[in-house]
Design brief:
globular, 2 domains, SH3 type barrels, 129 residues, 6 strands, signal, 1 helix, alpha+beta, two-stranded antiparallel sheet, 4-stranded antiparallel sheet
């Protein structure tokens, strides 16, 4: 066996596991995306400041998320001492109402599930996002 043949065989032996690993990662990626596309998939609806309301966390901490679903990224946990300034509300794919708000003292804006707010959040029809 000449030197060129040995190098070619070595190259094939060294790269085959990497190619198979890449194929395995590619094959599993759509399944991971499909799992996150369910009822808790994170959405990012538009919002505007339509509400003059404000409130507090109902009990413990209200999770301020990047979108109106529990599958969305947690941005901040607002305890009862924080004043939450409402912007507007939406109903998510599960039929639950979420309020977009800001935690002024922390410079954070996001979505909180209305059942976690002491007054039920921004629910007036005029305040719908």
């Amino acid at each position: 066996m000449n030197l060129l043949t040995k190098r070619a065989r070595f190259a094939v032996a060294a790269t085959t596991p990497l190619l198979l690993l890449g194929a395995a990662i590619t094959a599993t990626a759509p399944a991971a995306q499909a799992a996150s596309a369910g009822i808790n998939a994170c959405t990012h609806p538009g919002w505007s400041n339509k509400s003059p309301g404000k409130g507090k966390s109902k009990s413990g901490k209200a999770s301020v998320r990047s979108g109106p679903n529990k599958g969305c990224t947690l941005l901040f946990s607002a305890g009862r001492t924080y004043t939450l300034y409402y912007h507007c509300w939406v109903k998510n794919s599960a039929g639950h109402k979420w309020t977009h708000l800001r935690v002024d003292s922390e410079g954070v804006s996001g979505w909180v599930y209305n059942k976690n707010l002491d007054d039920g959040g921004s629910v007036h029809p005029d305040n719908k996002c």
